[in-house]
Amino acid sequence: MDTFTVYPAIDVREGAVVRLRQGDYGQETRYPADPFALAAQYARAGARWLHLVDLDAARAGGYTLAPLLRRLKAETPLQVQTGGGVRAEADVDALLEAGADRVVVGSLAVKEPGRVAAWVARYGAARLTLALDTRRDAQGRWRLPVHGWTEEGGKELDVLAAAYDEVGLRHLLCTDISRDGMLSGPNIDLYRYLCQRFPRLAVQASGGARDLADVTAAREAGCGGIVLGKALLDGKLDLGEALAEGAPC
């Protein structure tokens, strides 16, 4: 990829900054930081983008973070990609109106690919990030759970990524669910495969990043960026160093 973007992530549930283990709502760690204050801290460290997730909406629908999003856009220089509960065009319109630079579409991108492919044409590839979050099954196939990773979506990663690549998708966020929140390292083999098979996609690595070496590995695998969550919150990775590692030489 020509550019590599480091995306500090803030996941919000019931107004609090949280991290889940492997997408399990029953395995939650809450952090004392206020979501806006944390985002502002990331901006001061030099972040250009923020990955903001409404975990309540991801499971139940109905995006709740519009006031936070508006404040972020008014009071910080951050560009924001955000999602959770996007089920219809009206949801996309509402997030864009609230200031989202990119709207993240997850479950619907798996359940209704024809509909979401039309959105790529309507809104433009620069305004959408599709989250194809994946879990490997017993047969070695990369399956795509939906609704906050609580239900099987009936699709395979390879097939769906190819379909979206054909209609001009640009930004693909892929989380290996088994790595998410585990600080076990991202699945670099998976990302290298995706980047080689779909060179037009800017793949965002997500799940498991723990240190600067993981940022380097994602960049060298060809990813367009990496999402950093728990490692930043737990103080295991310095955002400034990660941003410097991701910057072009």
TrEMBL record:
Active-site residues per Swiss-Prot or TrEMBL entry: D11, D133
Top EC class of this enzyme: isomerase
Keyword Cytoplasm: yes
CDD domains xref list: HisA
Annotated Gene3D superfamilies: Aldolase class I (3.20.20.70)
Name under which the protein is recorded: 1-(5-phosphoribosyl)-5-[(5-phosphoribosylamino)methylideneamino] imidazole-4-carboxamide isomerase
InterPro entries found in the cross-reference section: Aldolase_TIM, His_biosynth, HisA/PriA, HisA_bact_arch, Isoase_HisA-like, RibuloseP-bd_barrel
Pathway entry: Amino-acid biosynthesis; L-histidine biosynthesis; L-histidine from 5-phospho-alpha-D-ribose 1-diphosphate: step 4/9
Domain of life: Bacteria
Catalysed reactions, as listed in the record: 1-(5-phospho-beta-D-ribosyl)-5-[(5-phospho-beta-D-ribosylamino)methylideneamino]imidazole-4-carboxamide = 5-[(5-phospho-1-deoxy-D-ribulos-1-ylimino)methylamino]-1-(5-phospho-beta-D-ribosyl)imidazole-4-carboxamide
NCBIfam families noted in UniProt: 1-(5-phosphoribosyl)-5-[(5-phosphoribosylamino)methylideneamino]imidazole-4-carboxamide isomerase
Primary localization class, coarse: cytoplasm
